[in-house]
Amino acid sequence: MRAEIRLEMRIFGGLDQLSRVINITRRGRVSYRNIEVKFEDGEVKAAIDMKGKAKEIEWLIKKMATLPEVISIETRARTVELEDPLTEIFLP
């Protein structure tokens, strides 16, 4: 199953902490469409639009959630599509 989502994060700190999060995103096997970043009062607000296999996106979110500088993560699904409908229905 493929998904296109918008990942919205609040990160404690500044540029160094944002760089650490970005390095994790580079490890995910997904395509990135857009990245928006705002620095506000000792916090970084980042939004990343990505597209890829749902399992890869899920792995990436779990990996980011383990970082101590990540305060919160929210996802907003944009589209979800089945790659092979028969495989999705009959295989775990």
CATH topology: Alpha-Beta Plaits
* Coarse shape: globular
Strand content range = over 45%
| Average of the residue pLDDT scores | 85
Q: How far do the termini sit from each other?
A: 12 Å
Count of β-strands = 4
User: For this structure, what is the CATH homologous superfamily?
Assistant: ACT-like. Chain A, domain 2
Verbal overview:
The protein has 92 residues and is of the alpha+beta class. It has one domain (2-79): Alpha-Beta Plaits (2-Layer Sandwich). 34% of the residues lie in helices and 48% in strands. The chain has three helices and four strands, in the order βαββαβα. The protein has helices at residues 15-27, 54-65, 85-90; strands at 2-12, 31-40, 43-53, 70-81. The protein has a four-stranded antiparallel β-sheet with strand order 2-3-1-4. The longest helix has 13 residues, at 15-27. Residues 87-92 have low confidence and may be disordered.
Name a few traits of the molecule.
92 residues; alpha+beta; Alpha-Beta Plaits; four-stranded antiparallel beta sheet; 3 helices; 4 strands; disordered C terminus
In short:
With about 90 residues, this protein is an alpha+beta fold. It contains 3 helices and 4 strands; from the N terminus they run E-H-E-E-H-E-H.
